[in-house]
Amino acid sequence: MAKITYVDWGGRSTTVDVANGWSLMQGAVSNGVEGIVGECGGSCACATCHCYVDPERLAELPAPDDNELTMLDLAAAEVRPNSRLSCRINVSPTTEGLVVHLPETQG
Ligand code: FES
Fold first, then answer.
1. Which CATH number fits domain 2-101: 2.60.120.10, 3.10.20.30, 3.20.20.150, 3.30.420.40?
2. Whole-model pTM?
3. Whose C-alpha lies nearest to ligand 1, atom 3?
4. Model confidence over 4-57: pLDDT tens digits?
5. Nearest to 82 by CA among 106, 104, 99
6. How far, in Å, is the centroid of ligand 1 from the Cα of 35?
7. Residue 7: CA atoms inside 13 Å, Cβ hemisphere, count?
8. Residue range 47-99, pLDDT digits in tens
9. pLDDT at 51
10. What distance in angstroms lies between residue 90's CA and the mean position of ligand 1's atoms?
11. Which residues line ligand 1 (CB under 6 A)?
12. What are phi and psi of 48, to 5 degrees?
């Protein structure tokens, strides 16, 4: 279990407990956090789970694989150096307190 904070485009912050092994996308969708869609259900095929990870915590996370990078190119909003697909990041004790910002649009 880890506390994850999602900050939407308007600056509204929502902090929820997400179970270990769940993705950041699942944590958002199951808690009704708006701004992450997760259209493909987490199979890295839609890019509607795009998020911006706190740059200072980015290095703690496993690097994106080629598939994630390819899908990120299709994200509807601006892609930044700290852009990730939230379905590709699993919650663990390492992610405790992680803050992710949500893009202006998911498509
Ligand atoms: S939920 Fe579709 S790519 Fe993440």
1. 3.10.20.30
2. 0.96
3. 44
4. 999 999 999 999 999 999 999 999 999 999 999 999 999 999 999 999 999 999
5. 99
6. 13
7. 9
8. 999 999 999 999 999 999 999 999 999 999 999 999 999 999 999 999 999 99
9. 98
10. 13
11. 25, 38-40, 42, 44-49, 71, 85, 87
12. -90, 15
Number of H-type helices and E-type strands within the chain: 2, 5
Domain ranges of the chain: 2-101
Extended beta strands in 1-107, E state:
2-7, 13-18, 50-53, 83-85, 98-101
Give distance in angstroms: CA of 86 to centre of ligand 1. Answer: 7
- The predicted pLDDT at position 42 comes to 97
